[in-house]
Please model this.
Amino acid sequence: MEAFNPKKKLQQYTQPKRSATFTAVLITLLLSGSFLLSDGQKNYQYPFQNPALNTEKRIDNIISLLTIDEKITCLGTNPSIPRLGIKGTGHIEGLHGVALGGPGNWGRRKLVTTTTFPQAYGLAETWDTALIRKVAATEAYEARYIFQSEKYSTGAMVVRAPNADLGRDPRWGRTEECFGEDAWFNGCMVQAYVKGLQGNHPKYWMTASLMKHFLANSNENDRVRSTSDFDERLFREYYSLPFKMGIDAGSRAYMAAYNKYNGIPMMVHPVLKDITVKEWGQNGIICTDGGALGLLWKEHKYYPDSAWAAAAAVKSGINQFLDRHTNPINKALKEGLLKESDIDEVIRGNFRVMIKLGLLDPPEMVPYTSIKDGEEPWLGATNKELVKEVTRKSIVLLKNDNSFLPLDKTKIKNIAIVGPYASEVLLDWYSGTPPYTVSPVEGITKKLGNNISVRWTTGKDADSVKNLAASADYVIMVVGNHTWCNAGWEKCPTPSDGKETVDRKTIYLEQEELIKEVYRINPKMVVVLAASFPYAITWTQHNVPAIVHLTHNSQEMGNALADVLFGDYNPGGRLVQTWPRSMEQLPPMMDYNIRNGRTYMYFKGEPLYPFGYGLSYTSFAYSAFKINSNTLRSNDEIIADVTVTNSGKVTGDEVVQLYIQHLHSVVIRPGKELKAFQRITLKPGEKKTIHLKMKATDLRYWDENKHGYVLEAGQLKLMVGSSSADIKFQDILNVIQ
Model:
């Protein structure tokens, strides 16, 4: 072991400004005679470098060595301290693949191609948590590869995903980022994504999942100053539930939302500490959204200036700013609004995440550090096949009169494809850059081969549309939204389009007029709705024989769509949001009390398509429904069994869904609540018994008087079916406290 040289060691610290804590620890180390520690095998210059040491003690040591300026640096998004050899990591977007390119990133960083999956909304429509976990794990592997490979000088391992916000209103401009309208279902998807991103190693994460945006952030217009108002029950049972489930699954990072909740801006709201930290155990990163610090005094008018705002944010638990925070923090310290110890307290969470990522440990100890060599993973066949599988599973068959689909290739000579996006795979605001894309036109053309004529037009030229439609055996219309409105920031020329910063002005599809025109020429039509959110396509539903829905962004979009249209794959996706018939069925946009007619749980009237809905090319018969007990106590679990048989002629997927209804509750409860689901694949004639499990704890409501969850005694209706509106069996269960 090298002899300790006080002069040599002190020279390392002559330049940085020393904090009081740092000076005290330095004196202690000098008196002790050595900085070098050994775990019996390796020597470490500082205690924090020893992976055998307790995590909190390692962080104690790090903080003791930091200058005040370095601590302020750690309030940014990358807590790297080169002087101490600490390599941290920043953030990347990753809602459906690593996003180091795409519309939201063009011009801001080096573009790197990555595997590009369907939008999060489409991922959810698979109703397959195991598949979602696989998607996230693929993304995590690529994030590690880019961050660690010598080929690249970009990337990060804190992934801003998943979006745990709820699609309470189809007009929300960022609907495509969420997993739908049901809190418990979203929570299941969030958990799958978190586990996929972080991996299953007992000590280290592959990447860190940073959930967005806590809390109740589902309006874009005026989001920088608006308030989302609702009661304590809805906070616990609805808006916060997916975030809590994500934390339960291991996520230790989230982003605070721009908006207020009940009049208090989220980035300074007491619930950050009081609930997420103290109750749920969130002890990692809590970051702001971009520019949110300035909003506290400029838009929310909540504080007089930047110093007050910065101090309040840190004291509320914020430990990473997506803003230029140095001057406000220094000003807050100078004015006595903030103490160095306040910063010490919050930045601990940043280092907990860095330690879980293995960034402070010897590379040979971290199992993921070898992910850096060989061919880029997004170029491999495995990833391409996974994208295709996910995209096919995400497609929802909305209508299929008289088995119009699948189309028989042997009886087709001429296909016309009409629509503005037929030849494109549209990327959204948080997309990556795919290594390749297959558009609907390309996928269909490849599927049909050289013996069938495939012609297409955008639909802008009336003569072209008329000529193609009139001469075609079938017309395939490809319509929907433009993912980023084909316009700049805060601009959306088409009323039914939406994106970040812009909510949709209408849910009616402008291109339905084009559908009507083509239908008059040739009614042998399939409408492909490529959409990031629900549309009130009532005319199309009443008239066109077949409709399929899928979301944007998948690099395999065209191949997956062609497989479904021509029968090489039987669609089994299900909707994750209620699709209204009209705008009149929607409450005011800023009404966050979902009991006033929002979601399938409280929806008033008949929807165009219900939550959980989706058709198949085959049919399924349900039988032998039974539950293991007609009574349920507080620590019990109910198992509902049902046998499902493929009674049709082709292999297909069914999504079996279990709903409940509290029949005599003392508080307002939903008409239906999803509590279990399972997607299965059955061959013709094949049958399978499904076991749907539900815990008594999932039936509790939040008592606002007791400020706790209560299991209510009384009768409970159990319903099993293929959607929220298609119940096959039901039974009554007695809940006993």
Q: What stands out?
A: The chain has four domains: 1-65, 83-370, 384-602, 620-735. The CA atoms of residues 659 and 674 lie 4 Å apart.
